[in-house]
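User: Before I run my own analysis I want an independent prediction to cross-check against. Here's the chain; please return only the structure tokens and, at the end, one sentence I can use as a sanity check.
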Amino acid sequence: MLGWIADSRRESRSLIRSEKYLKSLDDERSVWLKGKRIKVYEHEAFQGTLQTISALFDMLDDPVMQKQVGYPSPKTGEYVHTAFLVPKGPTDLQQRKAAFESWSEATDGMMSRLSDYARSRLAGWYAARKQLSRHYRDFSEKITRYYETARDQNRFITIVQRDVQINRSKQYDERCFEEAGLLRVTKKTTEGVYVSGAKMIATAAPYTNDFLVYPVMKLNQAQKSAANLFIVPADAKGLHIVCRESYAKPLSEKNDFPLSAQFDEMDALLIFDQVLIPWEHVLLLESPEGIWEVKTNPHSASLAYHQALIRLKTKLQFITGLACKIADTIGCTQFLHVQDKLGELIGQVETIHAILLAAESEGRSIEDGVYLPRFSAIETGRNLGAFYYPRAIEILQLIAAGGLIQVPASIEDFQSALSPLMKTYFRGANLQAEKRVRLFKLAWDVIGSPFASRHELYERFYAGDPIRNRAAQYLSSNKRLLLTKIEKYLSN
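Assistant: Structure tokens:
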């Protein structure tokens, strides 16, 4: 059953983390793909992704890597992922950064929901537990217990916030919650609360252990039945995980689809059909004010988007390196318009890098000595990313141009009787034919494959409406210094 991962073991050690994680997926979760209920760990659509996750988790057992991605749990002494570390100073922040960079570099920034983002959100809420407790009794105790369990059991966590698009004109009309499909409380019992409705878009849903579920819209008291924060195990009775089409290619096609074969993060719609949430997993109940504070909490937002910005930088570096290599391979680096485009890509990377440095160097300690990066800088980088990535893909497409189509169906074509001719006519200016084809197949997997289209859509919208986000930055920013520069010209 798990033989495909066992085959990749290093002889010197046992991959304990990956085995525990993969076995945790052998439960009663209701995962649906193409009209059939499936076992995630058995299905070919998930093998490349699970192999990637397993290799990342096993870094915590690797004597060389474990200090790069983890730290000793204060409870068990075993190494746990640094996303759980609540930073108390600049050194801790850099330790978190090193862990995020290690995972991002291993996936070239192509996997955004490897659990380090959700773990960072959780760590932020745990750090702010005293403040958030005023919205619901026992919040501090409950978040502490779950935080420690998730940390020490290496639980895979993902966050789901968005509401389904049935009729957006009536989506938050409290009289139409059921019609609009909003996740809402339907019944309260001594055991917990029952909820029905749906949530989208749950990235990594089929292979997560737990969901952190809450809305992101600002709700009022009339809408309080939808204003909840829950922990929901993936195998909860009545929860159905409906997957989109898989964009994963079989591992056997890795030569032709090097990214799609390894890094496809499945997205899903979650349908809650009278799901019981035990009181232990009810962190906030019918609390519009609490939910809004959870969403905007500086601890959680700063730590989570710090991770997201590190991943974005890695991804832009990858696209920039790919564009530079293609331009060099087809001999067009001397053209001014190509230099201009490559310079723009390099400028994107340097801008995000500078924003990260600014956010980290201008971090500060807040309540209880928690040290956070400057969020206004993090927010700027996040907002730029929604526009940078689509532009980076456009530039890559313009530079590669028709060369993206000038590739054979498979690398295996070089083993055919036409191989001598192919080696002549598929070569590059300074690259032999097979490597040139590999390069352009890699580019196609970033530009033209279903995997690529999903990534462009994801980067545009994963943080929400980019227009609303930029408007929110304007509304929340302190403009006093900016206005002072003008007022001196207006006074007598």
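Sanity check: The two ends are 81 Å apart (CA to CA).
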